[in-house]
Amino acid sequence: MIIAIDGPAAAGKGTLARRLAEKFNFAYLDTGALYRAVALTLIKGGVDPSNEPAAEKASKALDHALLSDPELRLEDTGKAASVVASMLGVRSNLMDFQKNFGVNPPSNKSGAVLDGRDIGTVICPAADVKFFVTASAEERAKRRVAEMRSRGVNANFEEILADVKARDERDMGRKDAPLEKAADAHLLDTTDLAIDAVFLRAAAIVENCLKPQ
Ligand code: DC
What we know:
This protein is an alpha/beta fold.
């Protein structure tokens, strides 16, 4: 079984994906981490993220050690990831790995959960269950600020809100594989819904799909 979860930054899709993978004992792939790893290769090398040949090269020979680098989660890495993600060559270099993860999940798991921006539309269009997780930009910025402050990082709401909106625009406005809801995806708006409620709703949909028809 493949579960595809898409949505904008900080909507709660990562938490939902992890919890579903844990409940059903499926493998989990955070596809945003792949774009972040490409971006981090450039940042560490002092290369501008808009340098397309350098980004393509980094995505072709992705350094998987970077996937556990703490700098992967920094705001600047996320912003740079959104820039490299708009490049056709980068997207196509990362495509096979993601598709293969869905079809042949590691450790012989019986299913896979992938989250990102184009999972239900491009990477796994035939996924068994698709979710589109979203929330208002203000709510997402609020959560991001709270999360940063809990880590002792200084965060300004207006700045983070501007970043969230800029990232949405770039992710939704790009030509190749823009962020959009697949027609057959279940919409989960988390603006006024706690993560536990979102999880219960999503888990019930997956359970229903696992039942012999
Ligand atoms: O989910 P995230 O914040 O870690 O993703 C970082 C960036 O990577 C995001 O702004 C857009 C890009 N991305 C993408 O284009 N396609 C995906 N499937 C996942 C992420």
